[in-house]
Amino acid sequence: MGKEFEKNDEVQAFVAAFAPLLADAMHLYSKNCSDSDYYKEAKEIKKKILEVVDAEAQHMGIRNIQDIFHKNEKRLYHWASDRRVPRITIVLNGTCVLPSSPAK
């Protein structure tokens, strides 16, 4: 989206804020850290993602992405409360590829 709307300041600010958070969330799973550190970092990343998703936006592309995260909120953040859930995979063209719940 950033390349498609490279002259739109709102889009550029959104991408600059959101993309690193998604990358952090996707790479957290593979970090070699204690459970305590994992859950602390996961909580912080999730909080920041929610701040971006809940921010007011005028651009329809941003709002569409925010809507994906609002509509799928119950399915998107299992990784933040259960380390056994593999990383999130998100395709921002309207489709979310979500990990399965962990095997018990």
Structure commentary:
- With 104 residues, this protein is mainly alpha-helical.
- It has one domain (9-97).
- The chain has helices spanning 9-28, 35-54, 60-71, 73-76, 78-81; strands at 89-91, 95-97.
- The longest helix is centred in the N-terminal third of the chain and has 20 residues, at 9-28.
- It is elongated.
- The protein starts with 8 loop residues before the first helix and ends in a 7-residue tail after the last strand.
- Mean pLDDT is 83; it is low at 98-104.
Protein topology:
Elements: H1 9-28, H2 35-54, H3 60-71, H4 73-76, H5 78-81, E1 89-91, E2 95-97
Helix pairs in contact: 1-2
Task: Fill in the keyword field for this structure.
104 residues, mainly alpha, two-stranded antiparallel sheet, 5 helices, 58% helix, elongated, disordered C terminus
Summarize the structure.
With 104 residues, the protein is mainly alpha-helical. The chain has 5 helices and 2 strands; from the N terminus they run αααααββ.
How far apart are the termini? 38 Å
H-E order: HHHHHEE
Backbone structural class: mainly alpha
The low-confidence runs, each spanning 5 or more residues with pLDDT under 50, are 98-104
Could you tell me the radius of gyration in angstroms?
A: 14 Å
Strand order in the sheet with the most strands: 1-2
The helix count comes to 5
Overall 3D form: elongated
Mean pLDDT: 83
Number of domains: 1
Q: Residue share in helices? A: 55-70%
Task: Bin the strand percentage.
Answer: 5-15%
Question: What's the multimeric state?
Answer: single chain
The total count of strands amounts to 2
Main β-sheet, in a few words? 2 strands, antiparallel
